[in-house]
Design brief:
Enoyl-CoA_hyd/isom_CS; catalytic activity; 21% strand; 32% helix; three-stranded parallel β-sheet; globular; ClpP/crotonase-like_dom_sf; alpha/beta; 2-enoyl-CoA Hydratase, Chain A, domain 1
């Protein structure tokens, strides 16, 4: 059937915390082997935001060893979205920024409302987007 992954951290516009990351990783690991799942829809329950990337407040609280590991785990989670054996659809309503945009790009199909704001805010401060897999998907924007 249809599986819906709902991101729901409205207080942070679905910024990816360690807890949210663990939940996404667990869900994706289970879906990989779910023979009943025919299609996956990734969407937000937070009004005005699909996902705004890593939770920067939480990242600032991490040690120098923990922060790169957290970013690497987000990258792996995004790769796991792309590797799912069934079609994955991103439903974008509101902000899809940084890692949130990369999650959407990892999906097979993206549907966005006309009010959506999509971008890589990292580039404004000359930082390569954290998950770093954007170049692999650059052919999508032709």
């Amino acid at each position: 059937g249809v599986v819906v992954i709902r991101m729901n951290r409205p207080e942070s516009k679905n910024a990816i915390s360690r807890r949210m990351l663990e939940m996404l990783k667990c869900t994706l690991a289970n879906l990989k082997y779910d023979k009943q799942a025919r299609v996956v829809i990734v969407k937000s329950d937070a009004k005005g935001a699909f996902c705004t990337g890593a939770d920067l407040k939480e990242v600032r609280s991490l040690s120098e060893e923990e922060a790169p590991k957290f970013v690497e785990e987000i990258r792996e989670m995004i790769e796991n979205v792309a590797a799912l054996p069934m079609p994955v659809i991103a439903v974008i309503e509101g902000f899809a920024l940084g890692g949130g945009l990369e999650i959407a790009l990892a999906c097979d199909i993206r549907v966005a409302s006309t009010e959506s704001k999509i971008g890589l805010v990292e580039t404004k401060i000359a930082v390569i987007p954290g998950a770093g897999k954007l170049l692999k998907r650059s052919y999508l924007v032709n």
